[in-house]
Structure formats: C-alpha cells, structure tokens
C-alpha cells in the first residue's frame, strides 16, 4: 500500500502526456489537411495553436511523471526506469512538435519578425 499514490500519479501523468502528444499530432494533421484544402489563415493558425498548446501540456505532464518517479523512494516505492525513459522520449517528441508548430507559424506570417 505504500507508494500507491505516487505510482498512480506517475502512471496517469505518463498516459496523459502521451495523449497530449497524440493530440498535437492530430492538430498538425488538421493543419496539413487544411493547407491542402486552402483554408483561411485564421483557421490554420487555430490548428497550430492547438498543436503548440497540446505539446506544452504534454511536456508539463511528462515532467510531472519524471518527478513522481524520482520522488518515489520518499514514499517507500521504487524508481521506475521505464517511466523516466518514456518521459524523456515524450518530452523530446513534444518539443519537436512545438518547434515545428512555431516554425510553421512564423513561416506562414502569423508572427511578425
């Protein structure tokens, strides 16, 4: 029974971070499909903002998962290597989507330089 709360927090945070990453990929695919259909710029900007917001949420949740994995020994539980590894990969993937969405926003003229 010891460490159940921190383990549950860790597992939920990893799964929500992965869901946020998938959501950001969906937003990028909506941008791509909208760009092929020549949608208006405000509609494309909404999908880029959606991708960036989901990526930021995924990064925050992955950091929460890594922190709960590292704090597990304080609650009589063990450190989960796979959670730490998964969190690092999820953070990297979300950072890539965030950079891509920001680059697309700048290239399409949404942010003046």
Tally the helices.
Answer: 3
How would you state the average pLDDT, rounded? 89
Q: Indicate the proportion of strand residues.
A: under 5%
Number of strands: 0
Residue share in helices? Answer: over 70%
Q: Using the CA coordinates, give the radius of gyration.
A: 17 Å
Q: Return residue spans where pLDDT drops below 50 for at least 5 consecutive residues.
A: none
**What string, H for helix and E for strand, traces the elements in order?**
HHH
- Oligomeric status of the shown chains? single chain
Amino- and carboxy-terminal Cα gap: 55 Å
Structural class based on helices, strands and sheet pairing: mainly alpha
Morphology call: elongated
Highlighted features:
113 residues, mainly alpha, 3 helices, 0% strand
Overview of the molecule:
The structure is a single chain. With about 110 residues, this protein is an all-alpha fold. It contains three helices and no strands. Helix 2 (about 40-70) packs antiparallel against helix 3. The termini are far apart.
Topology:
Blueprint: H1 4-36, H2 41-70, H3 81-107
Helix pairs in contact: 1-2, 1-3, 2-3
Describe the structure concisely.
The protein contains three helices and no strands. It is mainly α.
